[in-house]
């Protein structure tokens, strides 16, 4: 008597629906670690069978299938709250959240995560450029989306990161022309009576970041040993001022207390109002504070800088370009890139070399002037037979007889 062969556990099954399409189902491994019934669909039985075999093969190789259909918007919200926020700085989180809320979620939020395609993402970024967004902003959007999709790959929710495959025009380089020594000196003279003169001195003398200067406390200054310790920074994120660690581990550094910085600090201490302990910031003993003892608003130091520059008739640059001015001056003084990297708190030598190789107009003129001197032929004295073509040819052939062959 013939017997019908029964399907084995998790072998799967295929059947035709009333509308003529075919469906396949099998139990496969999911991202939650358990086996669940998954479905595939197609126009023909062979198409469904091919999909089902591939699905089961991936499960047998330990590749799980997502057990829920994430939408891009849902996953971005999850990634921001659970993955990004605990791991990145408040300012970076604020920028990422803005990109998700204003651009990525409205533009891509309705698509399924596991079906997000390269053409869809490419079209979205092209539309943002056509809408007038800067190339730099669109690059930030891609960074955020790519970071979220990389996490999705680790969670085995997607098989590839399509954001990395998008083609975007390169961001235009910023035209940064740092100040010369004379311009830097003129600025310090113009800022001499400003309450933030000592802060500007630190910005120029050490190339500190704006937040690093505002995060300095009196406990970071060792007058006896002649040292300053760069450890914290003040930033605004989420509508509040935060005092936290510096941008990178390389930003934690110990630098000698220069004479110009020491003098500026002593003068600043004599003028600083007493009474910082009356609010929550008093115990931090910050060097640069408002009259009420609170940290200086980072944007306000930029406004003060611009006001001083305009009043002094100096060439206007960004406050952050003081950092590039310091790097440029270190280069002109012959300071090695490795030492400049430590002084500036760069985490990668390539960043320092990028500034060092960005020559200024004076260095280019000096280099070409020296090349001009090398290439110039010395002028011969009148009627000097030694420089005539015949005399030169004779001297060459006497020195090397093979020259006659030419």
Describe this structure in words.
It contains 15 helices and eight strands. The chain is mainly alpha-helical and 406 residues long. It has three domains: 13-60; 72-165, DNA polymerase, domain 1 (Orthogonal Bundle); 181-334, hpI Integrase, Chain A (Orthogonal Bundle). The strands form three sheets. It has a three-stranded antiparallel sheet, covered by helices on one side. Strands 4-5-8 form a three-stranded antiparallel sheet, with no helix packed on it. Residues 1-5 and 386-406 have low confidence and may be disordered.
Low-confidence stretches: 1-5, 386-406
The CATH class of the largest domain is Mainly Alpha
The total of helices stands at 15
Residue share in β-strands: 5-15%
- End-to-end separation in angstroms reads 104 Å
Which bin fits the share of residues in helices?
A: 40-55%
Mean pLDDT: 84
- The number of E-state strands comes to 8
The CATH superfamily name of the largest domain is Intergrase catalytic core
Number of domains: 3
Radius of gyration: 33 Å
What string gives the helices and strands in order?
Answer: EEEHHHHHHHHEEEEEHHHHHHH
Give me the secondary-structure category.
mainly alpha
- Overall 3D geometry? elongated
Spatial sequence of strands, sheet with the most strands: 1-2-3
Biggest sheet, open or closed, and with what strands and sense? 3 strands, antiparallel
């Amino acid at each position: 008597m013939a017997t019908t062969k029964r399907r084995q556990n998790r072998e799967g099954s295929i059947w035709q629906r009333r509308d003529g399409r075919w469906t396949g189902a099998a139990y496969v491994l999911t991202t939650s670690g358990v086996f669940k019934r998954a479905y595939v669909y197609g126009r023909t039985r062979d198409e469904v069978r091919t999909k089902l075999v591939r699905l089961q093969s991936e499960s047998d190789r330990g590749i799980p299938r997502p057990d829920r259909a994430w939408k891009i918007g849902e996953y971005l919200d999850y990634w921001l709250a659970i993955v990004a926020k605990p791991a990145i700085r408040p300012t970076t989180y604020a920028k990422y959240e803005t990109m998700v809320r204003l651009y990525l979620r409205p533009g891509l939020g309705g698509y399924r995560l596991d079906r997000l395609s390269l053409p869809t993402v490419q079209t979205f970024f092209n539309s943002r450029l056509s809408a007038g967004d800067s190339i730099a902003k669109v690059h930030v959007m891609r960074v955020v989306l790519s970071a979220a999709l990389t996490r999705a790959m680790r969670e085995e929710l997607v098989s590839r990161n399509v954001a990395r495959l998008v083609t975007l025009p390169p961001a235009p380089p910023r035209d940064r022309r740092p100040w010369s020594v004379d311009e830097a000196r003129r600025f310090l003279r113009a800022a001499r009576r400003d309450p933030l003169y000592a802060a500007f001195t630190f910005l120029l003398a050490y190339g500190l970041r704006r937040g690093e200067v505002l995060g300095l406390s009196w406990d970071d200054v060792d007058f006896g040993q002649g040292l300053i310790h760069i450890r914290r920074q003040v930033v605004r994120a989420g509508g509040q001022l935060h005092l936290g660690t510096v941008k990178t581990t390389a930003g934690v550094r110990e630098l000698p207390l220069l004479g110009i910085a020491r003098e500026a600090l002593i003068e600043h201490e004599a003028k600083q109002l007493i009474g910082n302990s009356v609010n929550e910031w008093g115990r931090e003993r910050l060097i640069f504070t408002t009259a009420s003892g609170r940290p200086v608003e980072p944007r306000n130091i930029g406004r003060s800088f611009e006001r001083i520059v305009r009043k002094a008739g100096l060439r206007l640059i960004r406050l952050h370009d003081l950092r590039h001015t310091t790097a440029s001056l270190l280069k002109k003084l012959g300071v090695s890139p490795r030492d400049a990297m430590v002084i500036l708190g760069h985490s990668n030598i390539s960043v320092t070399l990028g500034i060092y190789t960005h020559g200024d107009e004076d260095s280019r003129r000096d280099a070409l002037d020296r090349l001009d001197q090398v290439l110039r032929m010395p002028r011969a004295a009148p009627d000097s037979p030694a420089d005539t073509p015949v005399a030169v040819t004779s001297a060459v052939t006497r020195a090397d007889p093979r020259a006659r062959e030419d």
